[in-house]
Amino acid sequence: MRAMKAIPRLIGLSLAAAITSCADVQERSHIVGGGRVGTTQVAGVGDTVLRISKEKNMPNIMGKADMFGRTTPTGVETVRYMGVRDGRAFFARRTVDVETGATTMNSTPLIIPNTATTTHSGSVNVYGPNGYGHGSYSGTSTTALPPTVIPAHPPAPMVTDEGSLLLSVDLSSKPAQLSAAGKTITVLQADNARLVYVLSE
Predict the structure, then answer these.
(1) Fewer CB within 10 Å, N- or C-terminus of the chain?
(2) What φ, ψ does residue 35 adopt, rounded to 5°?
(3) What is the DSSP secondary structure assignment for residue 193, as one 8-state letter?
(4) Are the C-beta atoms of 79 and 139 separated by less than 8 Å?
(5) Which residues are CB-neighbours of 85 under 8 A, at least 6 positions away?
């Protein structure tokens, strides 16, 4: 019996250990548009050269990363080619930040199991040593019903447009490099008709 009582406690301790041992929340980014890393590409004036999507681990109740690997978006950065002027290639970098407020607590539906308990009782005729008589019986049965699901209610996301920032790179010596959104744009050729470039991490 003591072992049976200890099981829920062990489960609770294991769950607490799993939550507290999760990694710290980290932000990361990946390219979602504008081209592939390490490949020579061509863009026209106004074209997107680089589009970065940023995300972070969804925090749990302890402020650590979700143990199931769920993430939440934190923003988008876009770099567009704007052409050449006075020996420099120009780019417009636009940053949009997103704060979803999503956590494992407000983004996980609550599932409540439902059961119905039925009690049975009555009397029966029984035969005993003294002949026929009456006996009684009682019992219960439990039936599982469809669970009640309470949907998740994450807060409305807050979107902040930081606007555009004009960046440029000197073309007097090529290849020329420009760092933007955590990536490197290597300019091989550039004029007011097209840009030939390579993306790298």
Answers:
(1) N
(2) 140, 180
(3) S
(4) no
(5) none
CA dihedral 61, 62, 66, 70 (to 10 degrees): 50
Query: Please, what are the averages of pLDDT over each run of 10 residues along the chain (201 residues)?
Result: 47 48 81 82 94 91 89 93 96 94 85 78 68 69 78 85 93 90 91 94 81
For the whole model, what pTM was predicted? 0.66
Tell me, what's the pLDDT at 129?
67
Q: Taking the domains of the chain in order of start, what are their residue ranges?
A: 24-107+153-201, 109-151
pLDDT for position 2: 47
CA gap 84, 155 in Å, rounded: 44
Q: In what order do the strands lie in the sheet with 158-170?
A: 27-33, 48-57, 71-85, 88-99, 158-170
